[in-house]
Structure of PAS domain S-box protein:
Amino acid sequence: MDETGSDADILRRVIDNVPALIGYWDADLRNLAANQAYVDYFGLTPEKARGMHIRDVLGPEVYELNRPYIEAALAGTPQQFDRTLIDVHGTVRHTQATYVPEIVDGRVRGFFVHVAEVSRRVEAERERDEAISLFETSMHHAAIGQAVVGTDGRWLQVNQALCELTGYTAEELQELSFRDITHPDDVAAADRHLAQLLDGSRTHIQSEKRYLRKDGSVVWVQRNAVVVRGTGIEGIIIAQIQDITRRKVAENELARLAVTDALTDLGNRHLLMTEIDSHTTGPLGLLFLDLDGFKRVNDTHGHGAGDELLVAVARRIADGIDPADLACRIGGDEFVVLVRSATSNADIERYRSSLKAAVTGVYRLPSVPGPITVTASVGSSWSADGGHSALLRAADEHMYADKSGAS
């Protein structure tokens, strides 16, 4: 015989050195075999364990818990289940038990037992479940919108704050993707951001975009999004979504005021010069209008009446130009119209005559008892391509020529 021993001896040493609990129980639930790990776990010896009833090994409480699995194994059906056990030293261990019936000539003679410790797995699952519970609780009670989004853009999980922000119920949102509620002008950017998260070129996205609420109204949001990847899963997007509509409205109003004449609501000099500077190619025309005798209106009827007249003149100018053109008040009683639609000198001259006719006439002002007749001097300039910086000066000179009757 080889010095390593017989095959049976080798097999016994292998089984005894396996950390899992391995045993065999006959149809009467008497132990016929158990490895060293099995008997050590329960504080037995192989000799003492042999012939013991499984109830006496497990204890009455665990036996009753395992009884349905034992009976199923004796009926010929393999079983696998988790069980928490306390070893002989009082240590709580989480295990996974497997019962495999031995069937000979169609009859179950007993079953093999394999019990592996899974405490690490159970602890990891517990920590995972606690983390999920904490995340869901935090998400549910968050004051801002929070969501879990799939890599296809569909809403997987949303909180109440997001429902209130969008006007949809959670069930309705989960039937939609973010594209379905994103403003059409913002969809391309949102898709680009999603692609960047998924291809790894960006780990975090912060952006401002518009959602369309269920009632059709627009809400501005600031969105922060990160991708979360895990073993064996495609990944998810965690998003925080905050309503910034009030801030955007305030910003837009400030931006509008920065380029708007406060009295007439037309554009101001800053807007005019910005538009002229940005128009680097193509034809462009200017009309420069100055009211005749405006100082006399102020001196006779007061500055309040003068302001009323400026507002009325601005309204006539705005009503008389094309939508593509821009009317601005650049100071006092001076107005400029940027005419993008003019295609020739003759064209701009027709615009000049039309504007002069629209502004000249009778005005009835709230603070003045009778009508006031107003005339205006209008100059024009036009450039086919380039040289736009000189247009304002040329139109101004032409206006003074018109005022002196030289045009």
